[in-house]
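REQUEST ID: PR-0412
SUBMITTED BY: lab tech R.K.
PRIORITY: routine
TASK: structure prediction, single protein chain
INPUT:
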Amino acid sequence: MRHGKKFNHLGRTASHRKAMLSNMAKSLLEHKRISTTLAKAKELRKYVEPLITKAKEDSTHNRRVAFGYLKNKEAIKLLFGEVVEKVGNRPGGYTRIIKTGYRLGDNAEMCIIELVDFNELMLKEEQPAKKAGRRRSRRGSGKSSDTAGTGAAAETSEKSESKSTKTEGSDEVVSETPVSEAPEAAAADEPKASEEQDGGEKEDDKKSE
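STATUS: complete
OUTPUT:
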């Protein structure tokens, strides 16, 4: 009877369940990914990940503990060698479960369980995403430079227009100066004409006398 045991028994006795998980863990370490049912994969993840954490510290005691679970020398070499080299810097989450649909016959939910750092395709897909973000920032700076260039061009055009208006105003002032001087010249000529007339009248008076 269960008596409060919350883990999934997988429809097997304790010895059968341990032997099955041990063989599945050995296959996962050897092939880096295996296909199985979702229920078995979830239980396998609980079984393998503590062993990988222990393998980060290579000692005789940890090797003997791992051998008690895996029962295979070749699997121990892979665990403490190739696997730890890739996974050593990761703080946890060494496996990934990808659902693949339902099995024909009993309609059991199937999945693939794999070691995260050995899937090179997904690691390559993560890198271009970061580059795309950087490119977007560069495009944004390019747009800002274009707007700055247009603003500078607008300022230069405004300055040129203001200069042209100033030059036109100066021409008008120059053209107005002779007009303002003309009345003064006429006023200067009038006293001379009046003096000549007075001189002519005096001469006529002398002749009449």
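NOTES: Strands lie at 33-37, 95-102, 109-115.
REVIEWED BY: pending
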